[in-house]
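Lab channel / #folding
Pinned by the channel admin:
"Please post every new chain as: sequence first, then the structure tokens as a reply. Keep commentary short and put observations after the output so the thread stays searchable."

First post following the new format, from NK:
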Amino acid sequence: MSLKTTDRPAARPVPPPNPDDTLNVEITPELVAEHGLLPEEYERAKDILGRVPNLTELGIFSVMWSEHCSYKNTRKLLRLFPTEKADKGALGQVLVKAGEENAGVIDIGDGWGVCFKIESHNHPSAIEPFEGAATGVGGIVRDIFTMGARPVLLTNSLRFGSLDSPQVRRLFRGVVHGISHYGNCLGIPNVGGDVYFDDSYEGNPLVNALCAGILRHEEIKRGAAKGVGNPVYYVGPGTGRDGLGGASFASRELTEESAEDRPAVQKGDPFMEKLLLEACLEMMVIPDLVVGIQDMGAAGLTCSSCETASRGDAGIEIDLDLVPQREEGMNSYEIMLSESQERMLVIVNRGREKELEEVFEKWDLHAAQIGEVKEGDRMVVRHKGVVVADIPAKSLTDEAPIYDQPSKEPAHVAAARDWTPDKYDDLQAEEVEDAFMQLLGHPTIASKHLIWRQYDHMVMAGNMFFSLSGVAGGFFFFVL
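Reply from TO:
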């Protein structure tokens, strides 16, 4: 299946020529192309604004209309998956649909729910395997505790090319190390996973991370900005230039040119995330304090701002001068598109600000009021007293472009369907034994002890561990 809208690979958004002036940069066709927007998408953005976007707005459209954020090429396919249990009220009822919020929630009885989500971090891991895989774990964990759930387990599903390749061995070591480092430091048990090796993944691994958490039904939090006048808080460490334009980068076709695009890979700090996790869970149990909460993951402050406004059918206004920053001289483009890790956007009930600030002061984290919920439907961004972005929030989310892509069955799938064992009827016993030993020696089937020994499965002391590292492809299971 082809998921490309054009043969031209989209490029990562680039900082403006003059980092102190984003409003006066000329928007040329070349600059639009560098941001990965198709000409027709740029025209659509102009129609939405009724004018030419400035550079910061161009960057916002670029990341929000990327495949990574908008699923513009796959949304129609993803909608084919079931999202509801047919027998309402029964055990297993869907409490929060997949795609409706940061993660889905299923009822497991007695007022408890399981919150879970799986997410890929493929391109970042192909470029910087350690940081790419580590921040993939960090991002999926934030999606879980953003819902109000305490994360209780991690797992993963990985695909690599042949281990005969030195490049694949480097990717393999880096990804496994990144997963184990972030999860082990957070103190969340990694309870299993699967790993397959095939030449089709040469140079472009698949790195999927899954996290699950538990919560009471009444503890479920939403990522919506509601209540005109309610303050909007930025919580967590300061914003830097790491991960700039990562959402657009993750949507690109991986080429030799894009492989040199290392600044688009974020840098994670699991110990900072542990502080953020505990602070957020402590904040969220305070009755009626939190109105909405959203992870600053892909597209950072841009995504969290417009998505909360869109879900809440409200407007939102933020002032970038109030955003904690760990680097000097950052402009609006960089602040809005940075994907620095371990940050959240929180909307609280007006008059309760002190309660939130006290929690984050206790955990030695920033809690800065950067804006408020407004009437209307627009995301308005100010910097140094000037409006640098004024865009209808839903135009960036629900109303992003959606494409129908051509598809066909791959030849190897058809060939596999037509395969029969008849041609092996005359094999000798020795040949069968030979083939069997080769199968057992293939890394997809062989013991995964090298991998799972790096994951902490005992932390939290809530699991029974059964090692089947030499059996059934190296899967290993836990009972909570």
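NK: Confidence is low (pLDDT under 50) at residues 1-12, 246-252, 467-480.
TO: also worth noting, The chain has two domains: 29-75+222-396, 102-220+441-479.
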